[in-house]
């Protein structure tokens, strides 16, 4: 089991219920993949350094978790196919 952190940016224009649902979706994905979530820090809406797809603001979320070494690929796949995720990065600690 390795320790990871993922920082992802959601579209700021979606409502709060949808943001919470996406955060829960990724949290349960980690738990279903055999890992444990240590913390989920919701940073809120912040201005992007540059526009991405004509969007200038995003909702930032930082999640720390422990998971098997093959799980980050699955998490990245799920984030890549989710339309509301603007950017993400998974880092091994």
Q: In the CATH hierarchy, what is the superfamily?
A: Ribosomal protein S6/Translation elongation factor EF1B
Structural class: alpha+beta
CATH architectural designation: 2-Layer Sandwich
**What's the number of helices?**
2
* Fraction of helical residues: 25-40%
- The domain tally reads 1
The dominant shape is globular
- State the order of secondary-structure elements, H for helix, E for strand: EHEEHE
Report the strand count. 4
CATH class category name: Alpha Beta
Distance linking N and C termini: 12 Å
* Percentage of β-strand residues: over 45%
Average pLDDT, all residues? 95
Q: Describe the main β-sheet briefly.
A: 4 strands, antiparallel
Rg: 13 Å
Which blocks of ≥5 consecutive residues have pLDDT under 50? none
CATH topology: Alpha-Beta Plaits
Task: Output the strand order for the largest sheet.
Answer: 2-3-1-4
List keywords for this structure.
93 residues; alpha+beta; Alpha-Beta Plaits; 52% strand
Structural commentary:
This protein is an alpha+beta fold and 93 residues long. The protein has one domain: Ribosomal protein S6/Translation elongation factor EF1B (Alpha-Beta Plaits), CATH 3.30.70. It is 30% helix and 52% strand. The chain is built from 2 helices and 4 strands. It has helices spanning 16-32, 71-81; strands at 2-11, 36-52, 55-67, 85-92. Strands 2-3-1-4 form a 4-stranded antiparallel β-sheet, covered by helices on one side. It is globular. The protein starts with a strand and ends with a strand. 20% of the residues are buried. The mean pLDDT is 95.
């Amino acid at each position: 089991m390795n320790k990871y952190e993922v920082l992802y940016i959601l579209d700021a224009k979606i409502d709060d219920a949808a943001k919470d649902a996406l955060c829960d979706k990724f949290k349960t994905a980690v738990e279903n993949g055999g890992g444990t979530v240590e913390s989920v820090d919701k940073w809120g809406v912040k201005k992007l350094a540059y526009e991405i797809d004509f969007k200038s603001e995003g909702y930032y979320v930082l999640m720390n978790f422990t998971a098997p070494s093959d799980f980050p690929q699955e998490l990245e796949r799920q984030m890549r196919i989710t339309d509301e995720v603007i950017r993400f990065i998974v880092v091994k600690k």
